[in-house]
Automatic annotation (TrEMBL):
It comes from the Eukaryota. Pfam families: 2OG-FeII_Oxy_3. Residues 1-18 form the signal peptide. The keyword Signal applies. Keywords: Signal. Residues 83-93 have a biased composition (Basic and acidic residues). This is Prolyl 4-hydroxylase alpha subunit Fe(2+) 2OG dioxygenase domain-containing protein. Residues 35-62, 83-105 are annotated as: Disordered. Residues 43-60 have a biased composition (Basic residues). Residues 316-373 form the Prolyl 4-hydroxylase alpha subunit Fe(2+) 2OG dioxygenase domain. It comes from Skeletonema marinoi.
Length: 393
């Protein structure tokens, strides 16, 4: 047959895109010919690969010129050099095991310090709460003693008739014999704390020497509260509470017994003070002022005169004090041989400085005399004190 030979020759001489079939013949389709359409092409032109497309695109773009100077400044890829950071701070070196241990130790110390501060804070808070409870307890105890156990009727009558009244165990007396006497124990501890506070004030130079009785070894201090509360909290609480609760009861009882001439007392203000006796100071002073053989003798103390708290009649007119309460703070072993106390001029009554004894006397009319303290060299008998409250009208 001649047809295959002719087809082969045609394909060799011409760029044949494909073949067209017809019922009578088979003929080649030449590229670019009139019959090279999408409907007539059996095998289309091959699409270029992605690599070929990139090559063609690169040929169309202008070539870029690279400055070799910049490249020459860069180190070789196989060369390691120590360089600084171009932006920001320098990179920190990776810590060694020793540095890590030091950091861990520092963190542990910081955590320990925080724990100690926390414990200290809790301890201070707990101490503050305990102090507040103690303060409230003391204020309440004095109030209960004034309102529940103190014989207010007898006190009012004694002041009206004699000008004074004496009562023992004001803070520590057992009221109910059938009870556990918890209040009595609390009151006795309070008296001991008040005595300790007065001694501490003397040791810390918070008291002044009574120069009117310079040879008697006595010191005085005002009880003013406020910033000085920490010096004597129990004494301050005693002064505050008795000032608040005793005057209203006395004023009411004055009306009941018909003692209209007695002045009404103010329950919002008073004058508090503290007087302390120190035997060592007294003996030291006597060694300078008296003969050597009389320095250790208690007989060298001069006798004191009688008088009232407000002084003479002129002083009474200018003085608002009308009732004085003296609470004695001393050792349980203190007795009449250790001195102290009062002597009343009207009836000669001697009032010893017994522990927790309270004496009420009219400041403007009751003439009395403070007896000198003596004490002894025995433990607990070298110091004694008394808390004094002046109620005003």
């Amino acid at each position: 047959m001649m047809i295959p030979t002719l087809l082969l020759a045609a394909c060799t001489a011409t760029n044949v895109e494909g073949f067209a079939y017809s019922p009578l013949s088979l003929r080649p389709i030449v590229a670019g010919g009139p019959e090279a359409t999408s409907t007539s092409i059996h095998m289309g032109k091959r699409k270029p690969s992605m690599k070929e497309r990139r090559r063609q695109r690169a040929k169309k773009l202008p070539s870029a010129t690279v400055d070799r100077g910049i490249l020459n400044e860069l180190p070789s890829v196989d060369t390691w050099e120590k360089t600084d950071a171009s932006v920001g701070s320098k990179r920190e070196s990776i810590p060694t095991s020793e540095v890590a241990e030091e950091d861990n130790a520092a963190i542990t110390d910081e955590e320990t310090s925080i724990d100690e501060e926390t414990e200290e804070t809790f301890a201070k808070a707990s101490s503050l709460v305990q102090a507040q409870r103690k303060s409230v307890g003391c204020l309440t105890h004095v109030r209960k003693r004034v309102e529940e156990s103190f014989p207010i009727n007898e006190a009012a009558k004694g002041l009206a008739e004699k000008g004074y009244f004496v009562y023992d165990g004001f803070l520590s007396k057992a009221v109910d014999a059938d009870s556990e006497n918890e209040d009595a124990v609390f009151g006795d501890e309070m008296v001991s704390e008040m005595l300790s506070e007065s001694s501490s004030m003397l040791s810390n130079d918070k008291m002044q020497r009574d120069i009117t009785r310079i040879a008697d070894g006595e010191f005085v201090a005002q009880i003013v509260g406020g910033e000085n509360y920490v010096l004597c909290p129990r004494i301050t609480e005693y002064v505050v509470s008795i000032t608040r609760h005793l005057p209203p009861l006395l004023n009411k009882e004055y009306d009941v017994i018909g003692a209209g001439d007695l002045p009404k007392l103010d329950s919002a203000a008073s004058m508090g003070s503290l007087r302390l006796y120190d035997r060592k100071t007294k003996l030291g002073t006597l060694s300078f002022l008296a003969n050597p053989e009389d320095a250790a003798s208690d007989d060298s103390v001069s006798e004191r005169p009688f008088g009232v708290v407000c002084g003479d009649s002129d002083g009474t007119e200018n003085d608002s004090r009308r009732l004085t309460a003296i609470l004695y703070l001393s050792s349980k072993e203190w007795d009449s041989s250790n001195g102290g106390g009062l002597t009343m001029e009207t009836d000669g009554q001697k009032v010893e400085a017994i522990r927790d004894r309270i004496v009420l006397l009219r400041s403007d009319v009751c003439s009395h005399r403070h007896e000198p303290w003596l004490g002894s060299d025995d433990s607990g008998l070298d110091q004694a004190s008394c808390a004094i409250v002046h109620f005003i009208q």
